[in-house]
Design a protein that fits this description.
Blueprint (H helix, E strand, L loop, with lengths): L1 E5 L13 H13 L3 E4 L12 H11 L4 E4 L2 E2 L5 H14 L4 E6 L4 H6 L7 H17 L3 E4 L4 E5 L12 E5 L3 H10 L2 E3 L9 H10 L10 E10 L3 H22 L13 H6 L2 E3 L1 H14 L3 E5 L7 H12 L2
Pfam families: Bac_luciferase (PF00296)
Protein name: Luciferase-like domain-containing protein
Keywords: Flavoprotein, FMN, Monooxygenase, Oxidoreductase
Amino acid sequence: MRLGLYLNLYGDEADRPSLEDGVEQARLAEQAGFEWVVLGERHLYRPGYHEILTSATWLAAKTDRIGIATAGIVAPLYQPVVLAEALAHLDVLSGGRLTAGFVLGYRPEEFALYGVTQAERVARFEECLEIITRLWTEDEVTYDGKFTSIHEAFLSPKPVQNPRPRIWNGGRVSAMLERTARMCDGWTTSFNELDADLPGKIAEYRSYERGEGTLGAEVIVCREGFAAKTSQEARQALEEPLRDLYDAYTGWKRTSADASRYTQGWDDIAARSIIGSPAGCAERIQHYEELGADGIILRIQPPGMPQADALKAIEAFGNL
């Protein structure tokens, strides 16, 4: 099973955010055999949050082999040509290690910050991905859309990967699954997607017709993850910082249908996570493989967890 490490890019109220911990984790994950180091995106977080594109570029420069993935960039917030060019150059600088994951976004304040009408997010998302894909794969692009018009545009250099970097899309609803099948190469689940719902959603996703030029229909399951000597030690290390993060999510996701999942107790969280002893974590990974997952992204370090604990858990997963 391919594993990805979802990096903690949050700052701390006591200090400015430092990416050096992330670099150390990425290097250890590379040594431990992880497939990807994975970055998310957030804005308007007072203690600080590292910007996704510059952080990915920095991590690419500090690592040698591990894939650099996003899960995900809030595509409706971006001018598509600028985003296509930045990601193409990231693929060049990393030697062809980029996987570009996108999401629709859900926080009204982030859309307001970028001057984007939230009701237009689906149309903007689809337009953005179409332009990115075409600029990555075509010699010249003319496009007259609702939000962007370009004439005889091209990228130089193009991405290293042939025909292009893989594209993921994250979300939960049926419309998203159809969109992912039509425009992308893989679906990244929510971290709070219930195990009981996964078989049906995986089957639904793979039932939709693939769009022309797509590169497969892989399923990447996102999960809270922590491995320690015993399940009790894992809970002791993870529960408090994870609860603090989930408390923040209840505010961020106040307009989302899944907001209630961030107020659930430990047993509910553990039931949809990979937390425990090495043997227990190995069983959980096998469980998701049997459900149809092609890869798993582990969020090991919530804000507030000591770096030493995160490093031990990364090493433990590498030894499974």
